[in-house]
Amino acid sequence: MDRQPPNPAKAEEFSPRGLATLIGSLPVADHAQGLELITRYTPEIPLWPQLPGNPKEGMLVQFMEGMVGLIEGERTYFDTNGDFDEKLLPFFEEFLAVSDDPIALMNSRFSISRERAAGLYLLKEAAKTSGLAEAVKGQITGPFTTLTGLQDQHQRLSYYNPSLREMIVQGLAMKGAWQVNFLKETGLPVLIFIDEPALAGLGSSSFITISQEDIAQDLNQVAGAIRGAGGLAGVHVCANTEWNLLLTGDIDIISFDAYTFFDRFVTCRDQIHSYLGRGGIIAWGIVPTSEEDKIVAETTESLVARWEGQAAQLSNDRWPLSAILEQSLITPSCGTGSLAPELAEKVLVLTSEVSAVLRDKYLSNTN
Predict the structure, then answer these.
(1) Between the ranges 21-25, 164-168, 200-204, where is the mean pLDDT highest?
(2) What is the pTM of this model?
(3) How is domain 8-362 classified at the architecture level of CATH?
(4) 279: alpha, beta or left? (left if phi > 0; alpha if psi -120 to 50)
C-alpha cells in the first residue's frame, strides 16, 4: 500500500532540481578547510564536513554522546552491568520530556557538541551569511548501522539487547531532531541524511534473524523525528540493499550509489515511480568514489551520459528526464574521506559540473 507523500509541506519549501550536494566525509586537515571546499563546489546545498581521521567523529561514536553505558577506548562498547538499568530511567524520562519541547531539546543530553561535530557549528555560521545556499544538509549515523556496529561487554550486537536498541533508536531520533532545530537557525530548509551502510547486509546470514519490519520501524522513528522537527529525512546507502524497504517507508530522500548499483535499484521501477509520485526525491550518487582508476577515467561528459542512460530506464510519459531531474539531487556515490586530497577534489568538481550541465540541458526553461 502506498504511503502518504513523504513530507509535502517541507517539499514545497525545497525543490531539488538537480542541485549538487555531498556525502559527509572529506580528507582534509581541519573543518574550515573542508567547509571551504564544500561551499566552493556545492554552494546551493552545503553540508557540514566530517573528518574521519578524528576519533571523536568516527561513524559509530559521533552521535553517542548522552547515551548510557558507552565505554570508549581501545575497544568501544556498551557496559550493561552494575547500575545500567538505574541510569536508563532518567534517559527515557528526558526523552519523553523533550520529544515535544524543542526548547528543552536544545539543552538536553541529546545535543551534539562542538567537540564531536565542529563542522556542524561552522556550517551554521557560514550558511547564515551565504547568498547562494538554498538548503543546508546534515547527517547522522542510522540506527541499524549503529546497533549492528556496536556491541555490549559480551561482544553481542547491541541490536539484540532490547534496552540498548530502544535507547539508541530514541537517542538518534532526538539527535536528528536537535540537528534540524540547530540548522533551522540559518533560515534555510534542512536536509538530514541518515547514513545506513549496514543495510547492505540485509539478507545475509549475519542478520537473518532481524526482520525488515523491525528495521523499518526503527528507521521510521528516526526519520519521523527529523520530519517532525521540520526537516527532510533522507537515507544514504552506499551499496545494494532491499530498496523496497526505503521506497515504501516514510523517507523523503533516497541517496544511493547510482554509479555502481543502479542496475539493482531499477529492478524496483514501479515502486520508484510511486515514490516519485508521492513527492520523493532521489539523490543520484553518480560520481564514483570507491576506485581510483574510475575517478581518474570519468569526465563530466561521461557521467552526464551515464545519468541520462540510467534515467531513461525510469522514463515514461509521466516521467520524462526533465521531471525526474526536478525531483533529483546529484551527489558522489559516497563520502571522500578515504581518498587522496586531489582525487577527492576531482569528485567534488565532477559533482558540481554534472549537476550544472544536467540542469542547463533539462531545466533551463523551467527555472
Answers:
(1) 164-168
(2) 0.94
(3) Alpha-Beta Barrel (3.20)
(4) left
